[in-house]
Amino acid sequence: MINAIEQIKPSWAVPQSIQAFCTTRAGGVSMPPFDSLNLGLNSGDDPEIVLKNRTILSRTIPSDPIWLKQVHGTSVSTPDSRKLSAAGPFEADASVSNIPNEVLAVLAADCMPVLFASHGGDVIGAAHAGWRGLSGGVLENTIHAMCALSPGLSPRDISAWMGPAIGPTAFEVGEDVLQAFASQGQATLAKVFIPIVGKAGKYLANLYLLAQDRCSSLGIKHIDGGEFCTFSDQERFFSYRRDQKTGRFATLIWISPST
Predict the structure, then answer these.
(1) The pTM is what?
(2) By the 8 A CB rule, do 70 and 105 touch?
(3) Helices (DSSP H) in 183-221: which residue ranges?
(4) DSSP label of 71
(5) Could you tell me how far CA 201 lies from the centroid of its own chain?
(6) 199 is a domain residue
(7) CATH number, position 116
(8) Which residues of the chain have pLDDT under 70?
(9) How far is CA 174 from CA 85, 179, 183, 204, in A?
(10) Strands 124-129 and 112-118, how do they pair?
(11) CB atoms within 10 A of CB 144
């Protein structure tokens, strides 16, 4: 018997037209170590099983998600760019839309999914933000792409929600990661990178603070989420850093048409 999909719904102030949720491990048919709702086709799981899991997911959303070929980059898939390609997955680490019932999706297993919605409820975005994407500007690119879809829209008219990612007590990084942000004048470096005692050149990094700083620097005032840790919550979340061989969960958002 297939369990119901667990939905983690963002706690953020957005119009009723904005629908969004994040899946967990629960509700699918994958066997260990991908148990059970693994939605990542490139995770090492049986592709047919993953497609069954995606079929289960499809029963909860208005259309098939726009799946991305995520490469830890900064490219954004837009309605216009998708018209140039017959089918996905589209090579990008973020997507935006102003089309009702078009479901945006990002996959993750430690990297941070970040959702965006305009206060008017007519433009949305979803980004896959690990440290490479964050340092490269994937959040900034997503916000700029949203504004391009709606004349007059500015970052202060957008809300953000940071979904489940590896938490600040578990994300150990080296000097290279710190330098990726230091070279760009990250204002919160002292709070973000905490030196690990006894490990020279090693730090505990806070992805949530990095994302908050990036969004705030563009003018976004409403930023929610950030209370999860995929590494420590093994029951609910996949974690590549914890398990190496593991699945992927999805974070999805769409605009529900007016009734």
Answers:
(1) 0.95
(2) no
(3) 189-192, 207-218
(4) -
(5) 28
(6) no
(7) 3.60.140.10
(8) 1-3, 86, 184-187, 259
(9) 38, 9, 15, 9
(10) antiparallel
(11) 15
